Amino acid sequence: MQRILEDVAREEGHIVLDLRELEFIDEPGVCQLFSFIDQLSQRGIRVELINAQDKVLSKFLVVGLRLWLDEQIFNKVG
């Protein structure tokens, strides 16, 4: 799937991922998706996630908050 999305991104410069059908994602899956989005963003490709169900969105928020807190703590601790 990643290879297909990369091919589309090269052609379009923008990807919209409709997550309507995604009923579950675990933390490693969220981290992998965040990493992939970050890689594309660094190449100037915008990724938009739409229609995430509440339980999927809450997992994104929990993982995102944890990653942000880890970054804040490690930046201050050194």
From TrEMBL:
Coiled coil: none annotated. This is Anti-anti-sigma factor. Pfam families: STAS. It comes from Desulfofundulus luciae. Residues 1-78 form the STAS domain. Gene3D superfamilies: STAS domain (3.30.750.24).
